[in-house]
Design a protein that fits this description.
Blueprint lengths: L1 E4 L2 H5 L1 H5 L12 H6 L6 E11 L2 E12 L3 E6 L8 H17 L2 E6 L7 H9 L2 E4 L7 E2 L1 E3 L6 H6 L6 H11 L2 E5 L3 H18 L6 H13 L3 E8 L2 E11 L2 E9 L8 H15 L4 E3 L17 H7 L7 E2 L3 E5 L2 H23 L5
Parallel strand pairs: 4-5, 12-13
Antiparallel strand pairs: 1-2, 2-3, 3-4, 5-15, 6-15, 7-14, 8-13, 9-10, 10-11, 11-12
Length: about 350
């Protein structure tokens, strides 16, 4: 098994290579997102692990940052695209050796491997460090929206008095949903709504320019779409959805703090699902919820979000979250015990933004 950097030809065809990974490809591993993160000081790297599975290769997108005094940190956002510990075990040593040759002290990964006590134990046996999750969908609600199913079948599968009721109520009350172009004006309207949501929920978001460029990048590459729900001519909710191959993701969402139209956000999400199905998508990730064992815990900061998303499906999927492959034990110890904490605290408390 050989690990190498991708060729220019492979980089140009990156998203197609991702679709051949065991997970079918993840939008967070896309070329567009990985290169976009240069705006936050990350350098994009693209790795190929040859002969990962017989004659098949594994494509891994890496975000790289130099950490003063320690060396290089690699971050595989929602990658590598594997689905179980057996696949992970195959790449640990080759990746470790390759990373070491390039001055890396740790590789942070977030593969969507289903969480269980047995899985966590097996990962620790491989020498992996289970760490704080970074992306919000380490626990999430995933919907089967296969185009082979009718819309009525999808609606019937929703919990009683759940999203279906809210969707119909919103339609009766005159709520409308539009797919809108990602213009500066529309982006400003969505961002202003999102700022209200973020302040209310207590999480941080990047500045307008960062998010506008993000949304525009994916819209221009036909991988994203902005939606507005309106009631009596006023925007009451917005959403930005992403799509890669057979999977769509509800990336960003916001609504007015004072509810003016019951079910507007549900109808909005339903229109996102319809949009994704037209593109041949089979799986829709609502992108973040409380863990399954805390879905009814009102003290969890995502409780309200979880109640909304489980109105579409009661099943919460828990992944293992983030984990570190240690390359240099001494440097990693300094990173984990001190440097990372100071960096995250500075960005969170002083700059009011996310470091990762």
């Amino acid at each position: 098994m050989n690990v190498r950097f991708a060729t220019d030809k492979e980089r140009n065809n990156w998203d197609a290579l991702l679709s051949r990974n065991p997970d079918g490809g993840n939008i967070f591993q896309s070329k567009e997102l990985t290169e976009f993160k240069q705006r936050s000081g990350w350098t994009p790297r693209f790795l190929i692990i040859e002969n990962f599975d017989k004659n098949k290769s594994l494509a891994i997108a890496i975000q790289e940052k130099r950490i003063f005094g320690l060396g290089t940190l690699w971050y595989a956002c929602k990658g590598p695209g594997i689905t179980n510990v057996a696949q992970l075990e195959k790449i640990v040593k080759p990746l470790q050796a390759f990373a070491s040759r390039h001055g890396v002290f740790a590789v942070k990964m977030e593969s969507e491997i289903l969480k269980s006590p047995e899985t966590i134990a097996e990962m620790k046996q491989l020498g992996l460090e289970i760490v704080r999750p970074i992306q919000p969908n380490y626990s999430t609600v995933v919907l089967d929206i296969s185009p082979t199913k009718s819309e009525e079948e999808l609606l019937r599968a929703m919990p009683k008095k759940g999203a279906k009721y809210a969707i119909n109520r919103a339609l009766r009350d005159g709520v409308t949903v539009e797919e809108v172009p990602c213009t500066s004006q529309n982006a400003h309207a969505f961002y202003d709504l999102w700022v209200e949501t973020a302040q209310s929920a207590g999480f941080y978001i990047h500045d307008f320019t960062y998010h506008y460029e993000f949304w525009k990048t994916f819209c221009e590459n036909n991988m994203g779409q902005l939606f507005f729900a309106k009631f009596q001519g006023q925007i009451v909710a917005g959403a930005f959805a992403l799509c890669l191959e057979k999977k769509s993701t509800y990336k960003d969402g916001a609504s007015v703090r004072v509810r003016k139209a019951y079910g507007a956000s549900h109808l909005l999400q339903w229109r996102v699902i319809q949009w994704a199905r037209k593109r041949g998508v089979t799986t829709h990730d609502l992108c973040g919820a409380p863990p399954s064992d805390r879905i009814h815990d009102k003290t969890h900061f995502l409780h309200g979000v979880g109640q909304f998303k489980t109105s579409f499906s009661k099943k919460v999927t828990d992944y293992v979250g983030a984990f570190d492959l240690v390359i240099n034990a001494r440097k990693y110890s300094v990173w984990r015990s001190l440097a990372e904490r100071l960096l995250l605290r500075f960005y969170r408390n002083i700059l009011r933004k996310n470091w990762y």
